[in-house]
């Protein structure tokens, strides 16, 4: 399976995290952590591709935006705001052809 093919596992993780937050106003940090972990694994595969699938882009952006939009109304989501920033950062890394493990925390880098 190519990294740009439809991914039913990603769809299910997205439903359990983003779908649940939007439909039931229930923030589950473990579900969002599982989604991010899976997307980090996906990022490693995408590094060698020329494209990022629309499904992956949707998962990243909708996760971040769902957390941000519910933070004002769902108190549990407040603690997830840093998780939203992680999704945006992962998108940035994918765009430049990197993955989660390519950028160690606290280590400066020159481009």
Helix and strand composition category: mainly alpha
Query: What number is the mean pLDDT?
Result: 92
Number of strands: 0
Largest sheet: none
| Overall tally of domains | 1
Distance between the termini: 32 Å
**What helical percentage do the residues reach?**
55-70%
Shape: globular
Beta-strand residue fraction: under 5%
Provide a descriptive summary of the structure in words:
The protein has 111 residues and is mainly α. It has one domain (8-99). Helix content is 60%, strand content 0%. It has helices at 8-24, 29-46, 54-70, 81-95. Helix 1 (8-24) packs antiparallel against helix 2, helix 1 (8-24) runs parallel beside helix 3 (54-70) and helix 2 (29-46) packs parallel to helix 4. The protein is globular. The N and C termini lie far apart (32 Å). 24% of the residues are buried. The mean pLDDT is 92.
Question: Could you name the key traits of this structure?
Answer:
single chain, 111 residues, mainly alpha, 4 helices
């Amino acid at each position: 399976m190519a990294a740009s093919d439809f991914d039913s596992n990603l769809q299910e993780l997205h439903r359990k995290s983003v779908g649940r937050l939007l439909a039931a106003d229930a923030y589950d940090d473990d579900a969002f952590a599982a989604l991010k972990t899976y997307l980090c694994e996906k990022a490693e595969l995408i590094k060698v591709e020329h494209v990022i699938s629309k499904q992956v882009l949707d998962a990243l952006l909708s996760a971040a935006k769902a957390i941000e939009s519910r933070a004002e109304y769902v108190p549990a989501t407040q603690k997830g705001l840093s998780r939203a920033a992680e999704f945006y950062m992962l998108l940035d890394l994918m765009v430049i052809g990197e993955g989660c493990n390519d950028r160690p925390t606290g280590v400066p880098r020159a481009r």
